[in-house]
Specification:
Elements (H helix, E strand, L loop, with lengths): L19 H7 L4 H10 L5 H14 L11 H11 L9 H4 L3 H15 L6 H14 L6 H14 L7 H26 L2 H12 L9 H6 L7 H16 L12 H13 L2 H5 L3 H65 L5 H12 L10 H9 L3 H10 L6 E2 L4 H14 L15 H7 L4 H22 L2 E2 L9 H4 L3 H15 L5 H24 L4 E2 L5 E2 L10 H14 L2 E2 H12 L1 H6 L6 H15 L4 H7 L5 H10 L5 H14 L2 H6 L4 E10 L8 E2 L6 E10 L4 E7 L6 H12 L9 E5 L5 H9 L3 E5 L8 E2 L14 E2 L4 H6 L1 H13 L4 H7 L8 H23 L1 H24 L12 H35 L6 H5 L9 E2 L12 H4 L12
Helix pairs in contact: 3-4, 3-6, 7-8, 7-9, 8-9, 9-15, 12-15, 13-15, 15-16, 15-17, 18-21, 19-21, 23-36, 24-38, 25-40, 26-40, 28-29, 28-30, 28-40, 29-30, 31-40, 33-37, 34-38, 39-40
Length: 977
């Protein structure tokens, strides 16, 4: 329940203080409310009933527990009802008679249309909670879901104890069903063996097996690769790869596995048999899946390293050859010019120089790299031998799987040469090398071919491993064929698409025709040019006229806002948004727990580690911070907290001047990391090891989605994934346009994004990519022939349309992430009908986008503005996290997600704090008559951090906000008169 609109649902009391912003958002009396109250109650009773009505509407519960009412709320009520409300009041002073209190509650309940929970509604609530218990990881989250369910159906929310007891019962029922499933899947004797082996010490005696399994991979090295293989073999020896739990949601399984990861092994051993069985089984299963994914990543990286080394070696060899050729030419030239020697002697000397000169090679550079790759057989053979024990499966026509099987037989026979009389299904580029008369070298070529082919097959999904998250069979990731045939119409209705491809293509081609005409007119008007090489050139956008007033106003505004210490900023924003309640799934029980949560956010979201944060925070010790950091790794909580903060920021009027919330940009920011982090790569710009954080930034500046990614890989998948997951909620404005740079798009990505109801708009870096792709049947205006490429196949789009829709529906429904889908159907899947259809459709959509981009300067300016806005937020992100990710952090998937989410949350909190104070300052200036234009505010932004002190001693003054942030800080219920 992250939505800012539902912040007070289920609350039993009001804090002693409310801000004016909160009053306007949650406790505002409408004209109809005032009229209804005035018609029913006399003047001296109106203030009390108004407060009762406002609280009941905001929380869904009657107001019983509060002594002093917030002054801001009383002031608003007094202004609204036209009377004079008391500046200090309590329930006891307002309701000295119990019947009057009950009468006002009853009237407010009837006025709002609220009903008590009856038997039928109770049964529906139980059914809902039983379903939700499969998704959440704690009873507290289930209580929150129950309150929201009741509120949305206009049912009076019972007391917290009643709701919590019901949630506990439903949670226990689901756990009992899960235990039954576990016991049916894992035999009792095998479960007992798992317990015995996992808690027993390792051979070296340094740790238990459970501690060994919990240890994440270290640096990218052969040792890490070998240890990962050893862990996978151990888990498969327990039969973990044969366990299937399709009826239990994956996130639920992750939650149980995370419990073991978070606590000390000795505490896990003390659990009851049932709880220990559930958590242990899912820990072993999830660990196997994650280790397999990690192994596939490490093997792919080793392949890339080997190919890169071969490439560099080939370049060096070619460079040496060039130098040798030049030296020989200079020697020959010197002999030609040396007239002191006879011609016969000089010819003989020239002959000696060119005697051992090799003929010019007719092979390409790629062929030379392949040949060089075969010169490194030991590392290639070591990699392939290590992968022999994995249960690879694949399509019958996949050559790499056949080669892997053949090599397994060769290794088993301890052959050192490739058999002469056996045919191998190698790709054409490798054929000459495999047919080499030197059969030892031919074996080396076959191994290199198998290695490169296996990596490509894994990426496109023609080879898979069942015990994996990202490398499962491709059809398992999509909606099952039978289900797709049955529910196709429902999925297409959600997507807003037709099963007939012509219904999509006809209007698209008409839009392209109109766009081509606009481009032709722009060329005739000199707004763009086409050179002799067929390259299209656009003039630089003219800068908007520089205005002094907005700059001065911005500087003055932030000067009046003043400086702020980071702890004060966190506390103030928590009081406005209650993000800590989302992170803990409940309110903090005391000040120590709340401060530890803030410290954990800083430890995850900045370069400061737990020990350093504890040293900077007088109230804490490192153990408290470490425990809170592990709690932040719970699935989904950081994302929901970020959503709450972004929604708070968007509620300000000034945010509407920055944008509509329908457009965004996405880009990667690299965080410097230790080279000993196994998933760190070298940033090609900064030339340092780094980890990638991919973020989506709204036109209103807030970061709406974040995810950690690997550097030097295409970012189209993460770009689409962020928009799809953000648009999943129907409670917010949906994104319709995403601006990206060249790395954030591919042709298939253009197609998938359009089928998912938003436009992917790339800023293309290379002029060679600014071509207009058309089908042969489409006519184009004269003068554009040099930039037209007529190779789009409408037939290919039609042929793969149904499977393309199935892929889009699978991404939309969450069965597969866009990251994995774009890998399986990306460039590695060339020749696949779905890839071909997506590629051809993407070319058409890119043409339509480029027509608008070329012909409409305002559209081009909008794309650049959105992208620049994202860059400004990146500067703030670097101010929050300016150091390096330590080598001992970020090794686990959950920890890397927590680092990314915490960093994003801290950045959003700064943006929201600035927005809130900019709005307050603007409102104050306007009340005093100071000139302030909306156009000035539109050109300002909240990505300002010079006034925020991110470092130093962290002193959290929690007492100022205790009533709003800590459970039980409000006064006890007032006694009735």
């Amino acid at each position: 329940m992250a939505s800012f609109e539902y912040r007070y649902i289920g609350a039993e009391s009001l804090p002693a203080r409310l801000s004016e912003f909160d009053v306007q958002q949650y406790f505002r009396l409408s004209k109809a409310d005032v009229e209804a109250i005035s018609a029913r109650f006399r003047a001296d009773r109106r203030a009390g009933v108004a407060v009762m009505l406002l609280f009941l509407r905001a929380s869904g519960r009657p107001l019983d527990r509060v002594s002093t009412l917030p002054r801001a709320l009383l002031h608003h009520v007094g202004e609204a009802i036209g009377g004079r409300a008391p500046t200090i009041a309590s329930l006891r002073s307002i309701y000295q008679r119990r019947p009057t209190h009950y009468e006002h509650q009853l009237w407010a309940k009837e006025y709002l249309g609220l009903k008590d929970v009856d038997k039928s509604n109770s049964d529906l609530l139980v059914a809902y909670l039983n379903a939700q218990a499969n998704e959440v990881s704690s009873v507290d989250e289930l209580v929150t879901s129950a309150c929201r369910w009741l509120y949305e159906r206009k049912l009076l929310i019972p007391s917290d104890r009643q709701v919590r007891d019901l949630a506990r019962k439903c949670y226990a029922n689901v756990e009992a069903a899960i235990l039954t499933t576990v016991q049916a899947t894992v035999p009792a004797n095998l479960l007992a063996r798992c317990r015995e082996v996992v808690f027993s010490p390792r051979k070296d005696g340094a740790s238990t097996t459970l501690e060994w399994l919990r240890t994440p991979p270290k640096r990218h090295s052969p040792g890490t690769f070998t240890e990962t293989l050893e862990k996978i073999s151990f888990l498969k020896g327990l039969g973990t790869h044969e366990w299937t739990f399709d009826s239990i949601p994956l996130e639920k399984q992750r939650g149980y596995a995370q419990n073991i990861q978070d606590r000390r092994p000795v505490m896990t051993r003390r659990l009851t048999d049932s709880s220990q069985a559930i958590e242990l089984v899912f820990f072993l299963r999830i660990t196997l899946l994650e280790l397999t994914d990690g192994l596939m990543y490490q093997s792919a990286r080793r392949v890339s390293d080997l190919v890169r080394h071969a490439y560099e070696k080939t370049q060096a060899k070619q460079a040496r050859s060039s130098v040798e050729y030049r030296e020989r030419l200079l020697s020959i030239k010197a002999l030609v010019n040396d007239t002191s020697q006879p011609a016969e002697q000089r010819l003989a000397a020239i002959g000696d120089i060119v005697t051992d000169l090799n003929p010019l090679s007719s092979t390409s550079h790629a062929a030379s790299v392949r040949e060089t790759l075969t010169d490194d057989p030991h590392r290639i053979r070591s990699l392939l031998s290590s992968l022999q024990d994995l249960d690879f499966k694949g399509y019958s026509n996949d050559n790499s799987l056949k080669l892997l099987t053949s090599l397994k037989e060769i290794y088993a026979g301890k052959l050192t040469e490739l058999p002469q009389d056996q045919a191998f299904p190698v790709d054409k580029p490798w054929r000459d090398l495999v047919d080499d008369p030197d059969r030892k070298r031919a074996l080396q070529a076959l191994e290199a071919c198998a290695m490169v082919g296996l990596r490509k097959s894994l990426r496109r999904g023609s080879v898979w491993i069942d015990h994996s998250f990202s490398y499962r069979e491709r059809d398992q990731m999509l909606i099952p064929t039978k289900e797709w045939r049955q529910d196709r119409e429902r999925h297409l209705s959600i997507l807003g698409l037709s099963a007939d491809p012509d219904a999509f293509l006809r209007p698209l081609l008409k839009h392209i025709e109109a766009g081509l005409k606009a481009v032709s007119e722009a060329r005739q008007q000199g707004k763009l040019t086409i050179d002799a090489q067929g390259m299209l050139h656009l003039p630089a956008l003219e800068a908007l006229p520089e205005e002094i007033d907005p700059k001065r106003t911005r500087d003055l505004m932030f000067k009046q806002i003043g400086r702020v210490q980071f702890p004060d900023l966190l506390l103030e924003m928590d009081a406005h948004t209650n993000f800590s309640e989302i992170l803990l799934a409940r309110r903090a029980t005391d000040e120590s727990e709340l401060v530890a949560l803030y410290a954990a956010l800083i430890a995850h979201g900045t370069e400061i580690d737990a020990k350093s944060v504890a040293a900077m925070t007088p109230q804490l010790d490192p153990d408290q911070v470490s425990v809170a950091m592990r709690a932040l790794e719970a699935s989904g909580r950081l994302r929901r907290a970020n959503e709450r903060v972004v929604e708070f920021q968007g509620k300000h009027a000034i945010a509407e001047l920055w944008g509509s919330g329908k457009t965004a940009s996405s880009d990667m920011m690299s965080l410097d990391a230790s080279k000993h982090l196994w998933n760190a790569r070298v940033d090609p710009r900064r030339r340092t090891h780094a980890a990638g954080m991919y973020t989506h930034v709204l036109d209103q500046h807030g970061i709406v989605y974040d995810q950690p990614i690997v550097l030097n890989e295409r970012q189209a998948g993460p770009a689409i994934e962020g928009v799809v997951r953000y648009n999943d909620s129907t409670e917010r404005v949906r994104l319709s346009l995403l601006a990206v740079d060249t790395h954030g798009y591919t042709n298939p990505a253009m197609a998938i994004s359009k089928l998912l109801e938003f436009d992917l708009c790339p800023r293309l870096r290379d002029l060679s990519e600014r071509k207009l792709f058309l089908p042969r049947s489409l006519e184009a205006p004269e003068g554009l022939d040099q930039v037209l490429v007529r190779d789009v196949s409408l037939k290919a789009i039609t042929k793969g349309w149904d499977e393309l829709l199935r892929l889009a529906a699978s991404i939309r429904s969450g069965r597969v992430s866009a990251n994995v889908a774009l890998q399986r159907f990306g460039s590695a899947a060339q020749g696949d009908p779905v890839h071909k259809a997506a590629d051809q459709l993407g070319r058409l959509l890119r043409t339509l986008f480029l027509c608008d981009y070329f012909s409409n300067p305002e559209f081009r300016r909008e794309i650049h503005t959105i992208l620049n806005r994202g860059e400004s937020v990146h500067q703030l992100q670097r101010a929050v996290y300016f150091g390096k990710v330590a080598s001992e952090r970020g090794r686990r998937r959950d920890e890397m997600i927590a680092i990314s989410g915490s960093h994003t949350l801290l950045t959003n909190l700064v943006l929201a704090w600035n927005t809130h104070h900019m709005q307050e300052t603007a409102d104050r200036w306007r009340r005093t008559g100071q000139k302030l234009e909306d156009t000035w505010l539109a050109r300002m932004g909240p990505a300002h951090f010079a006034n925020v002190n991110f470092r130093g001693t962290f002193k959290f003054g929690v007492s100022r906000y205790a009533e709003m942030l800590i459970s039980g800080s409000t006064d006890k219920p007032a006694k009735r008169a």
